[in-house]
Amino acid sequence: MVRATHTLPPISSLPQGPGVYLFYGVGDALVYVGKSKGIRGRVRTHFRERSERWMMRRVRRVETRETAGELGALLLESKLIKELKPMFNVAQKQRRRIVIAERKTMPGGYVAVHLKAVDAIDPSKSGGILGVFKHTTQAKEFMTEIARRHRLCLKLLGLERPRTACFAYHLGACNGACIGEEPADRHNDRLEDAFRERRIIAWPYRSGIIVEEASPTGRSEMFLIDNWVLVGSLTRNGGKNAEPFLPGSHRFDYDTYKLLYTFMEKKDEGRSIREVGVDEWNSYVKLATGDARTEKRIQTAPPKGESWRAGMTPRKK
Ligand SMILES: [Zn+2]
Predict the structure, then answer these.
(1) Pairing verdict, β 98-105 and 111-118
(2) DSSP conformation class of 113
(3) How far apart are CA 175 and CA 168, in angstroms?
(4) Contact at 8 Å (CB) between 68 and 235?
(5) Secondary structure tally for the chain: helices H, strands E
(6) Distances in Å between the alpha carbon of 267 and those of 33, 261, 264?
(7) Cα of 178 to ligand 1 centre, how many Å?
(8) How far does the centroid of ligand 1 lie from the alpha carbon of residue 151, in Å?
(9) d(CA 177, ligand 1 centre) in Å
(10) CA 157 to centroid of ligand 1, rounded, Å
(11) Cα 293 to ligand 1 centroid, rounded to whole Å
């Protein structure tokens, strides 16, 4: 068997800056897509990592796509994985569906939890969601834990279906919402509190924002983001006019939300995030989507009882 590295270009020919790399195997089948702030260094570690030998033995060709910065690399990687479904990324991440915990009001005004597997979340309805999970097992583990810590009712959490009192009540570990002993309002409030960390964080800006990244080589990218949704993006190489880069999506998806949220929480590093007015927003959207119609803002009500996170700009009342 020919060793993979024989047919590969030397790693030193790969770009050093941020971007995405694609590993192709026999028959030019796409094996893996990854991203990094430094493509060359990251690809080198793939080849050195013992645990990845099994994958890297298959690699015959490396393709790279440079971006201006980290966010561009993250979003491009996410898009390519979704579109091209490289075999090792798919194996790594079998599930794309997520599980949401919804509120369901029961007789007597008690809020019960209902789990539902979904492909995507409508951002305008995220206020009705108590929490988001990768899968049902994770949701049940979380709820078992909060039941214990907060003395919540197993019946209302949906972890048990007893006809009367839940098992925890018999053990003295539930305050008795299952049999009407604890008032609905009290249990509802404690349930909301317990789910706080699992909630989708309300969009912390008054408007859409523009994130700009620039590389030392003169490439720059601009991302139009509103309510955790990538609406469009533009790229400019040297002095040339801006042209559309990654297409936007008009629905909330959990991967992008997590990616944007994590990115924006990090303090740093020479990137710029700014809120823009409606006119400027619309003119960029027009450029990015090549579309003359102006974009309506995606509206989201802040989730009930949500507080703003440190490091993010609070929406002005
Ligand atoms: Zn109970």
Answers:
(1) antiparallel
(2) E
(3) 9
(4) yes
(5) 10, 11
(6) 27, 12, 7
(7) 4
(8) 9
(9) 5
(10) 9
(11) 53
Kindly give the distance from the C-alpha atom of residue 145 to the centroid of ligand 1, in angstroms, as a whole number: 15
Strand partners for 19: 36, 66
Residue 168: C-alpha distances to residues 171, 188, 290 (Å): 5, 17, 58
> Which class is 4-92 in CATH?
alpha beta
Centre of ligand 1 to C-alpha 159, Å, is 10
What is the whole-number distance in angstroms between the Cα of residue 190 and the centre of ligand 1? Answer: 13
Report every protein residue that has its C-beta within 5 angstroms of ion ligand 1.
153, 166, 169, 174, 178
Question: What is the per-residue pLDDT across 56-82, written as a single tens digit (0 to 9) for each?
Answer: 888 999 999 999 999 999 999 989 988
Taking the C-alpha atoms of residue 301 and residue 74, their distance in angstroms, rounded to an integer, is: 27
Put simply, whether the predicted model's pTM sits higher than 0.70 gets the answer: no
Residue 73 CA, ligand 1 centroid: distance in Å: 48
- Which residue's entry shows tokens 């002095």? 239
Residues 6+ apart with CB under 8 A from 286: 292, 294
Ligand 1 mean position, distance from CA 111 (Å): 13
What confidence tier does 211 reach under pLDDT thresholds 50, 70, 90? Answer: very high
> Which sequence spans correspond to the domains of the chain?
4-92, 98-198, 201-317
CB 98 within 8 A of CB 117: yes
The string of pLDDT tens digits covering residues 84-117 is: 989 888 766 544 567 889 999 999 999 999 999 8
Alpha carbons 13 and 72: distance in angstroms, whole number: 22
